[in-house]
Amino acid sequence: MILSTKQMLIEAQKKYYAVPAFNIHNMETLQVVAQTAAQMRSPLIIAATPSTVSYAGARYIVAMAEAAAKETDVPIAIHLDHFEDVTQIKKAIDAGFKSCMIDASKLPFEENITKTREVVAYAHRYDTVVEAELGKLIGIEDNVIVDSGEAVYTEPDDAVRFVDATHIDSLAVAIGTAHGLYKGKPKLDFDRLKKIHQVVDVPLVLHGASDVPDEMVKNAIKLGICKVNIATDLKIPFSNAVKNFFKKNPTANDPRKYMTPGKEAMREIVMHKIKVCGSNDRY
Ligand code: 13P
Fold first, then answer.
1. How confident is the model at residue 182, as a pLDDT?
2. N or C: which terminus of the chain has fewer CB atoms within 10 Å of its end residue's CB?
3. Which residue ranges make up each domain of the chain?
4. Distance between CA 231 and CA 171 in Å, rounded?
5. Residue 149: its pLDDT value, please?
6. Pairing relation of β-strands 138-141 and 144-146?
7. How many CA atoms, within 13 angstroms, populate the side-chain half-sphere of residue 41?
8. Is residue 227 within 6 Å of ligand 1 at its C-beta?
């Protein structure tokens, strides 16, 4: 059964681990995250950005996730990641998504509240939970580029006002992570995270967790992060393994053969990330 992310995040929040949210793109990547989570007894959030939904189709993603969920009893949720368009969110909820992110973080504070409230009003009617973001992460995510000069960290007082005004179910915070690979070593503002965790009671989400040293991610989880988003760290090993396969087998043309090394390489990373999140053996 496809669940909302609410219960799994509240459970993680109580026990100070994080549920991994892995970005998938197709059947192969969805299979890898679902089978690995099942094997490791980890709850799982399967995340799809607007480009993934337009590439794979909302109903296909829902159907594939339902098939995956039938093969295991660990909780699996499907989640809309970084959606900015309210109509698209409503459509995907109608197609069966039970968890969504409205990303209005580029708008001024009050407009972010207004747009987020509209999504919450619709989503909650259909038993669907809502994540929203306050602050701005730099980097590239789903074709949207934010330059380093535009980064804005989440202010704890604003976070309280935002959560109260919107009734969101989880909050993505900007504490120094970025989408994609880092130019230098990432610097996370753990004091800020600590303060936000003290004053905000909804589960907190860390975006841009690829290329962040494991110890930093673990520390963020200790300080209250209970959902960790990972995309780039999965895409790179998958595509490198496929490229290597073609280098060795230049005449290959069977997708079942050339996709398999990609899946195997990705599986290793998924296992590692689940351990970093501390979500293994929870069910
Ligand atoms: P990375 O690509 O940096 O892992 O970011 C993923 C993310 O935050 C998706 O929402």
1. 87
2. N
3. 2-235+266-277
4. 19
5. 65
6. antiparallel
7. 4
8. no
Could you tell me which CATH number the domain at 2-235+266-277 has?
Answer: 3.20.20.70
The answer to whether residue 254 is catalytic is no
Amino acid 147: pLDDT: 65
For residue 46, list its beta bridge partners.
22, 78
To which H or E segment does residue 78 belong?
strand 76-83
CA 72 to ligand 1 center in whole angstroms: 26
- Tokens found for residue 244: 């290597």
The CA distance from 65 to 60, in Å, is 8
**Nearest alpha carbon, ligand 1 atom 9:** 229
Q: Select from 56, 66, 1 the least CA-distant residue to 29.
A: 56
The CB-side HSE value for 179 (13 A sphere, CA atoms) comes to: 19
Q: Which pLDDT does position 170 carry in this prediction?
A: 98
Low-confidence ranges of the chain (pLDDT < 50): none
Tell me which amino acid residue 144 is: V
Query: What is the whole-number distance in angstroms between the Cα of residue 206 and the centre of ligand 1?
Result: 9
Strands 76-83 vs 99-102: parallel, antiparallel or unpaired: parallel
3-state class (DSSP) for residue 101 = strand
Greatest Cα pair distance, the chain, in angstroms, is: 59
Q: How far is the CA of 21 from the centre of ligand 1 (A)?
A: 9
pLDDT digits (tens, 9 = 90+) for 226-274: 999 999 999 999 999 999 999 999 999 999 999 999 999 999 999 999 9
d(CA 157, CA 198): 11
pTM for this one? Answer: 0.96
Ramachandran angles phi, psi of 205, nearest 5° = -120, 135
Beta carbons of 43 and 75 less than 8 angstroms apart: yes
pLDDT at 2: 74
Using the atom order of ligand 1, give the atom closest to the CA of residue 207.
8
DSSP string, 119-171: HHHHHHHTT-EEEEEESB-EEEETTEEE-GGG-BPPPHHHHHHHHHHH--SEE
